[in-house]
Specification:
203 residues, Nuclear Transport Factor 2, Chain: A, 2 domains, four-stranded antiparallel β-sheet, 12% strand, elongated
């Protein structure tokens, strides 16, 4: 099988096989690109009271438990804390993807909402569906996408290569194309032909 046919087959079947995963990757990638601008994806970061942090671990846990949507009963229900000293803020991200933003001086809840950006990231890399999907569906899809890029670049370059090859072949057969392609004066100008004929007769 020629490289041209192989490239076209890989391009066609690769696009079909990876259509679903790649559509998900593209859609979630667009959302992640604008997550700072779209509060539905990621909540805006608030700003607390300037000064040193006054909250201890028990106060953070108590403030989080006071919000029913977090469904927090212990530290095991909290996924991570994101401390922002420049904003005097502590973000509490719960395992059910609910996010609290606490003023690290007063413990006041500055913002409470569902955070979707982490879920979108998991959909983007396939980890949401488990390790099998991540490594045996999404990873191969990425490799096939790389193959599509390579074959697409080759198929784009191929017509230029063929035209150049034909041009070089013509030059090899015809070393002086300009001399052979030069117009014939007599064939171009009937009057010149007649004049040449009279001159020859007169001579």
């Amino acid at each position: 099988m020629s490289l041209n046919r192989w490239s076209r087959k890989l391009h066609r079947w690769g696009a079909i096989l990876t259509a679903g995963p790649l559509l998900l990757v593209i859609a979630t990638g667009i959302l992640l690109q604008i997550k700072k601008e779209v509060t539905w994806v990621q909540p805006p970061t608030m700003k607390g009271t300037p000064g040193a942090a006054n909250l201890d671990w028990n106060q953070i846990l108590a403030a989080t438990q006071a919000v029913p949507e977090t469904q927090v009963t212990s530290w095991s229900d909290i996924d991570r804390l994101d401390v922002r000293p420049d904003r005097s803020l502590i973000k509490v991200q719960c395992r059910n993807r609910w996010e609290l933003q606490l003023d690290w001086n007063t413990g006041q809840v500055l913002h409470s909402t569902y955070r979707r950006s982490d879920l979108i990231e998991m959909l983007h890399d396939g980890s949401f569906f488990g390790d099998f999907s991540k490594y045996y569906i999404f990873l191969p899809s990425g490799l096939i996408l790389l193959g599509l890029w390579i074959t697409g670049a080759y198929l784009w370059y191929l017509p230029f290569h063929v035209r150049g090859k034909k041009k070089r072949a013509r030059k090899a057969r015809d070393p002086n194309p300009r001399d052979l392609d030069a117009p014939d004066l007599d064939a171009r100008d009937p009057d010149a032909t007649a004049l040449n004929a009279r001159g020859t007769t007169g001579t």
